[in-house]
Amino acid sequence: MRNYELLMAIYDRCPDSNKREYTVDQYFDRCLDIRQMIETHRPELVKGDSEYPQQEVGIDY
């Protein structure tokens, strides 16, 4: 799948809250679907396991 096709598939999977109301579970499910799509078609973008977790963004010590 090319980048454009992947982006369009992700965009199609994004919920449109203007058309209907979604629950938190539905938003979470869509996010997981999008992550899985990226992991399947672009495995080089998947963050690998690091033995140095302090270098990850958003972790406070």
Give the helices and strands as they follow along the chain: HH
Instruction: Outline the biggest β-sheet.
Output: none
**Percent helix among the residues?**
40-55%
Shape: flat
Q: What is the rounded distance between the termini?
A: 40 Å
- Estimate what percentage of residues fall within beta strands: under 5%
Task: Describe the fold and architecture.
This protein is mainly alpha-helical and 61 residues long. It has one domain. 48% of the residues lie in helices and 0% in strands. It is built from two helices and no strands. The chain has helices spanning 3-13, 24-41. The chain is flat and about 45 Å long. The N and C termini lie far apart (40 Å). The mean pLDDT is 82.
Topology:
Layout: H1 3-13, H2 24-41
Keywords for this entry:
single chain, 61 residues, mainly alpha, 0% strand
Summarize the structure.
This protein is an all-alpha fold and 61 residues long. The chain has helices spanning 3-13, 24-41.
